[in-house]
């Protein structure tokens, strides 16, 4: 079931999203060669808790024996999403997708951004640019009266027109009182298809874009999603509120 939020509920989600945006700004400012992903994770958790909120990802999962162990998802190069922070240090020329969720006063916010580690190749820089642009194209379609498919197609069209591919095994999602709510928001689809959007819907729109094939595999840890061909992948995400004329980006 899709839940429409009241103005009061959207304001509560907005507060969670503000913390998410602050975390991404803080952690992103520390991305550089020699920094470990575990250092970034600890910094993020400390900040979230200092704001009276809790990390949404830590302890998340459906398998009680393998819950997600960290605050951030840190996904380097060919890791698409859900990379687990550790002692691994960042190296010049890599890209790292950082995804963070926050729960504050019963409501969730969720966003992601891919950062460059020092100077990167022109092709990696172009991958980030097109992925972020595709997020903007999708958000522009998140208007009452449009459909989920309109959002999906806008993302897919932009990505594929530049020679990249959208991951098809993972989607965006509704977000609010739960971290993952209906509807699913794929990054590929047909215009006019899927659920009709209404004012009061809150969505996490998140293109995951591969430099090569869209195909992915899951690592032995049960979480880390990798590009099957080993080529780099980028991930950008915002939580938005669907409005009558435009979407409001809550995690800006």
Could you walk me through the main structural features you see in this protein, from its secondary elements to its overall organization?
By secondary structure, this protein is of the alpha+beta class. It has one domain: Creatinase/methionine aminopeptidase superfamily (Creatine Amidinohydrolase), CATH 3.90.230. Helix content is 28%, strand content 25%. The protein contains four helices and 15 strands. It has helices spanning 7-29, 37-50, 122-140, 148-161; strands spanning 54-55, 72-76, 79-81, 95-104, 107-116, 165-166, 172-174, 181-185, 202-205, 208-210, 216-218, 225-227, 233-235, 238-241, 248-249. The strands form four sheets. The chain has a five-stranded antiparallel β-sheet. Strand 4 (95-104) and strand 5 (107-116) form a beta hairpin. The longest helix is centred in the first third of the chain and has 23 residues, at 7-29. The radius of gyration is 17 Å and the shape is globular. The model has no long low-confidence stretch (mean pLDDT 98).
Which H/E pattern describes the elements?
Answer: HHEEEEEHHEEEEEEEEEE
Write down how many β-strands occur, each being a DSSP E stretch of 2 or more residues: 15
How far from one another are the termini?
27 Å
How large, in whole angstroms, is the Cα Rg?
A: 17 Å
CATH architecture: Alpha-Beta Complex
The CATH class label is: Alpha Beta
Uncertain stretches of 5 or more adjacent residues: none
Give me the side-by-side strand order of the main sheet: 8-7-9-14-15
Number of domains: 1
| Portion in beta strands | 15-25%
| Structural class assignment | alpha+beta
- Stated plainly, the CATH topology is called Creatine Amidinohydrolase
Measured as a percent range, the helix fraction is 25-40%
Look at the structure and name the CATH superfamily.
Answer: Creatinase/methionine aminopeptidase superfamily
Shape field = globular
Tally of contiguous helical segments? 4
* Average pLDDT: 98
């Amino acid at each position: 079931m899709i839940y429409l939020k009241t103005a009061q509920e959207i304001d509560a989600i907005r507060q969670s999203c503000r913390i998410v945006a602050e975390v991404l700004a803080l952690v992103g400012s520390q991305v550089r060669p020699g920094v470990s992903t575990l250092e970034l994770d600890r910094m993020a958790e400390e900040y979230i808790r200092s704001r009276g909120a809790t990390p949404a990802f830590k302890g998340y999962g459906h398998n009680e024996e393998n819950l997600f162990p960290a605050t951030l998802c840190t996904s380097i190069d060919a890791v698409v999403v859900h990379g687990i922070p550790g002692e691994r240090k960042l190296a010049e020329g890599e890209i790292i997708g950082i995804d963070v969720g926050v729960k504050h006063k019963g409501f969730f916010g969720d966003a992601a951004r891919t950062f460059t580690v020092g100077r990167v190749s022109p092709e990696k820089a172009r991958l980030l640019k097109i992925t972020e642009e595709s997020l903007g194209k999708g958000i522009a379609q998140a208007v009452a009266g449009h459909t989920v498919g309109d959002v999906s197609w806008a993302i897919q069209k932009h990505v594929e027109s530049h020679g990249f591919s959208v991951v098809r095994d993972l989607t965006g999602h509704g977000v609010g009182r739960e971290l993952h709510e209906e509807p699913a928001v794929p990054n590929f689809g047909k215009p006019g298809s899927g659920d009709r959007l209404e004012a009061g819907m809150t969505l996490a729109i998140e293109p995951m874009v591969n430099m090569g094939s869209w195909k992915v595999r899951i690592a032995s840890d049960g979480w880390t999603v990798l590009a099957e061909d080993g080529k780099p992948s980028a991930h950008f995400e915002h939580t938005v509120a669907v409005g009558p004329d435009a979407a409001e980006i809550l995690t800006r």
